[in-house]
Design goal:
Elements lengths: L2 H8 L8 H26 L4 H26 L5 H9 L19
Length: 107
């Protein structure tokens, strides 16, 4: 059983979502943050760092976003789920809808 699941199972308040699904989401997002951190470390070990700058920047951004998302989703007692619903319905940058899945938006 994951740590997120253990914490959610011990939560005394009311959670109006599937606890297993919520724990799985927190675990997946946390694993993504860890993967991005590891990728950044590997990129820094490359011979030509100049070529890796964009990748490192994307990995650092990914780590930040995943860490923040896991924190918000885990904060069920502080209204995390309404925040997630709001963030999920936020407008995307112009042209983002026409980009293929897996492409990154960069300013």
């Amino acid at each position: 059983m994951s740590y997120a699941r253990q914490l959610l199972d011990s939560y005394q308040g009311t959670v109006n979502v599937d606890i297993a699904l919520l724990a799985a989401a927190i675990d997946a997002i946390s694993e993504c943050a860890q993967a991005c951190t590891a990728d950044t470390d590997a990129d820094l070990g490359e011979q030509d760092l100049t070529e890796m700058v964009r990748c490192i920047r994307l990995c650092l951004n990914c780590t930040d976003v995943c860490t923040a998302a896991a924190g918000v989703i885990a904060a069920t007692s502080a209204g995390g789920m309404p925040t997630c619903r709001t963030a999920g319905s936020a407008p995307r940058p112009a042209g983002a809808a026409s980009r293929p899945a897996g492409s990154f938006w960069t300013p």
